[in-house]
Amino acid sequence: MHTQESVRRALLVQLEAAYPITLPIETLWQGLRIAGLPSHNETIRKELEYLLDKGFIQCISNELCPNHRRYKLASKGIDFLETNS
User: Fold this and answer.
1) Residues linked to residue 23 through DSSP beta bridges, in sequence order
2) How far apart are CA 85 and CA 81, in angstroms?
3) Cα–Cα 20 to 30 A to 45, which of 10, 28, 67, 82?
């Protein structure tokens, strides 16, 4: 599996484990780091944007602090993990 795909899958699996709770980017970063995957801020943001564009995850912003984003697995992401496990 390519590194990009590994990072995306790791992000999805983390969000699946927390579902239906949202996770901040810091938690996702720690999970990638522990898994030994590339965990550069730019890499994570790029892969999260990709997963958002595909409809696999949702981004929830805090009304008081819009820059504080949390991520949640979307139904399309659940379906993907169920069919590709």
Assistant:
1) 71
2) 6
3) 82
Does the bond joining 20 to the residue before it have cis omega, within 30 degrees of 0? yes
Distances in Å between the alpha carbon of 60 and those of 2, 10, 14, 36, 45? 28, 19, 16, 27, 14
CATH number of 3-83: 1.10.10.10
Q: What is the mean pLDDT of residues 46-74?
A: 92
Question: Residue 66 pLDDT more than 90?
Answer: no
Token look-up 């969000």 returns: 15
